[in-house]
Amino acid sequence: MSIRSSELFSKPTKNIDVLTAFGILGIISLIIVPVPTAVLDILLTLNITLSVIVLLLSMFTTEVLQFSVFPTLLLVTTLFRLGLNISSTRLILSQGYAGKVVEAFGVFVTGDNYVVGAIIFIILVVIQLVVITSGAGRVSEVSARFTLDAMPGKQMSIDADLNTGAIDDKEAKIRRQKLQREADFYGAMDGAMKFVKGDSIAGILITLINFIGGIAIYVLQQGKPIMEALSQFALLTIGNGLVSQIPSLLVSVAAGILVTRSASDENFGTDLGSQLFAFPKVMMIAAVVMTVLGIVPGLPTVPFLLLAAGCGIGAYLLRKEEKSKEKLEAADAAAAAAASSSAAEQKEPDGYVDYAQVETLEVEIGYGLITLADDKNGGDLLERIAGIRRQCAHDMGIVVQPIRIRDNLQLKTNEYTLKIRGIVVARGEVMPKHLLVMDPSNEKIDMKGIPTTEPAFGLPALWIEEGDREKAEMMGYTIVDAATVMVTHLGEVIREHSYELVGRQEVKKMIDALKTNYSAVVEELIPNLLSLGEVQKVLQNLLREKVPIRDLVTILETLADYAPGTKNIEGLTEYVRYALSRTIVLPYLDENKVLNVITIHPKLEQYIADNIQKSFQGSFPAIEPDINTRILENIHSLVERLSLGHVNPVILASPKIRAPFKKMIEMAFPNIAVLSLNEVPNSIEIEAVGMVNIYDN
Q1: CATH fourth-level superfamily of 358-498
Q2: DSSP label at 129?
Q3: pTM for this prediction
Q4: Which residue among 307, 353, 459, 531 is least crowded, i.e. fewest CB within 10 A of its CB?
Q5: Domain 502-579 carries which CATH code?
Q6: Distance in angstroms (rounded) separating the CA atoms of residues 463 and 432
Q7: What's the rounded Cα separation, in Å, for the pair 439 and 444?
Q8: What's the pLDDT tens digit per position in 325-341?
Q9: Residue 291 contacts residue 315 (beta carbons within 8 Å)
Q10: Torsion sign, CA atoms 229, 232, 235, 240
Q11: CATH of domain 585-697
């Protein structure tokens, strides 16, 4: 039976945690258990190899979290080196020999001069301790401090992206974990650098102990000549110090590279090459400077001229590559221009992309109405539309996105259309340089003009010449110009379709503005209890029934109170309506501050309550068609009778059936409000002016 090579390599990794545990226990045992010289040679070679691997890994990482285990690894490698130092010290003092690796390093460095070897060892220790370790430790300390200080801002940025829908919950969780791991890494590195510093100091002390202790043992205990002992132990001590400090130096350099890395998508080598040789002019200037130094009397000519030639060749190659990139960019630009020209030859309509985009709200005007929007010719349509947006924000509490105005030659000369998300929801026709007059008493207008119907409210009206304004005023008529007619119509369309205009982006703007002074309720509610989309649906439900959302604080606080108990949007909407009761009732009070209501027969209320069904879009009464027809007819007769007495009533229902009953009648009676008993404050006087009843008694 054959075993694939991938299986062989994968098997050790399955138990890597067990192997790591045994490895750390083995490192600790080096301090206690004597090690043969042959085993020590292998372990010293392993130490050097591991240090080289760590250094290379630090150079090829693109972000610190790719090597997040480094602080712990730093501790393990430091402990490993100390264990090897103690093992080699035991062999040096007991046998006067510590293996071929220690001897080779001592012979290679010292040669015949032990003083030179000792100086080199001291220099290595100073470089590591004073330069690399000290600098890397300071960088780690500062990085940890700045990372921790920046965490709140980064957390808020993640929450903002989540609320806007730019990222989902899974991505937000990943980003938060990454942010926490990054802070933990720099915090750990701040302390881990102390391991390297302590290792350097321990290396110096162990080297001195080896030297002094070895000479004392050989001279005092064994009675050998001091020069022989000095020769023997100088070689071994220097070799042991070097074989320990060189791996320590490599790991220190790796730590310095890792903590000094800037944010980049590339590794250290790639960034170094791309940035160091980014400017050919720099290489050319360097070549000139090296040439000048090469011809200065007293300085070595050949090295400087060789470096000058290298810099010059490098500058030439970099400039050649730069010109090649410029040619490619020019070719791409030419190809893009050709594609654009080809598209023009195909006679695609101008502004195709603009027309393909769907605006939230837009106004299209015929050719004859362009002057109304041209401020150079005295047109103030744009300014008036801006005023409508402000008015809607004041009255309804909604943020209306900028309204796009564009001409459409397919419309009649004086015609305009109002679109919501690319769909025409209303249209009208006005006459520039004319005035629209209406009679407040709905009587026939006794003037000469062009009969028409006012587009916003459907009232009979008349277009008259501007010269007849004074006459119309004397007769008590209401007079408006063409721009006012359009803007009024636009305002009514916005109020009627306000719930369609409140998307997630608009809700986010409102909540962000509120967060400045009411951050507590916002942070409690979103996204912990409700998502931005769920808050949006509640606001849409309110606007659908013409309930203003100006008091956003009360709305959010109510949602924060009840959201822990239910996520039902219809139920949450009803709770908010209870909290906004005064705001809801106020527009329906008559001049005597009395609320005129049409009640529902108790038997009919019970019948509707028994037949309520729930769906994805909320609850609705599933009643028989003929009963539904009789209810609508009864309401129609009541409203018609009450209108003769100039009474504008609302329908009062029990809280259980309010929302379903509103959905049942809103197609036939969109302007009739349905209130529940809980929505009427106790201070409001109620007068019943009718009852919805389909029964005989």
Answers
A1: FHIPEP family, domain 1 (3.40.30.60)
A2: I
A3: 0.50
A4: 353
A5: 1.10.8.540
A6: 10
A7: 7
A8: 766 666 655 555 444 43
A9: no
A10: negative
A11: 3.40.50.12790
